[in-house]
Write a structure and sequence with these properties.
single chain, about 300 residues, alpha/beta, about 50% helix, binds dihydroflavine-adenine dinucleotide, FAD, proline dehydrogenase, Proline_DH_dom, oxidoreductase
Amino acid sequence: MMCTMTAQALHSHSYDSTLMERLLFRVAKKWVAGYSAGEAIGAALDANRRGMSAILNFLGEDAADRTQVGLAVREYLSLMELMRARGVRGCVSTKPTQLGLAVDYDTCLQNFSVLAKKAKELGQFLWIDMESARFTEDTITIYLEVLKDHPMTGVAIQAYLRRSGADVLHIIEHGGKVRLVKGAYHEPEEHAFATGEEVDRNYSRLLKMLAESGNFFAVATHDGRLVDEAVNLRANNCEFQMLMGIRDELKSQLVARGLPVAEYIPYGSQWLPYSVRRIRERKRNLLLLARSLVQS
Ligand code: FDA
């Protein structure tokens, strides 16, 4: 009952936002390094000590104006420098709408080019996250544009989208690099597969295409069956990526087998939308939240 109420509250946003945010942060701390870049660097160094590289994400999305976008760009530029100064093995990953895609396409393209140039200077990789389906086309176009001068870049592709087979082929043909994820947004059936089985089947299909391509790619899932499948493909052109706070034992097992693993580590004050996605994708997390509500 509590679980259903919590789910409804998350869905409708009809809750007292301050109280709910406070309670949510207790749970969110599991997946988020903290508010500051310093905390993110600490978590990244910890991931490095556990044999993984780190992918840092300054939380933020749907930036509504150029001021917000400018702040995000500056944060990433200084974060990349800080990673270098503190000897972090890793890179950053950023969202298109954080860099201005909801404001203006050209601004977003220019901002990605600026970050890619900085990443190149520092010898770091740059990942582009994928957001909801209305941004897919523009995100891929921007990625392929940035890729022309910056081969050390990659983009996330969501296996739940029906279009992703064609997108993966297109990106492979251009020599691009894909991070394969299942997908974390709510999409209508016209765009996305409706069942988990269909999404998993598509994930397997795309996994094989990427393994055969020879291009570097990332297997970004915590799904043990798909991870096994990827391991069994014996592709030497991929790395495994998982989110902070999820399936740490699986990360350690892969590291122990000598496979490359990266941990995605988000930080910043805009932790709510990210955490809501994490809570929604697993019933047990709703229980965790419900318990936190009961204990308050
Ligand atoms: P699935 O949801 O089937 O989970 C498999 C198993 O993993 C579960 O049984 C459970 O054990 C564990 N698990 C998964 N989620 C959990 C959670 N929240 N809490 C606790 N355990 C959990 N999405 C997107 O749309 N755009 C993007 O750019 C990215 N980027 C990205 C980067 C990286 C490195 C990862 C790992 C994931 C993303 N995602 C993403 C998120 C992705 O689309 C997806 O929502 C989550 O990874 C959950 O799906 P799984 O593939 O883990 O499978």
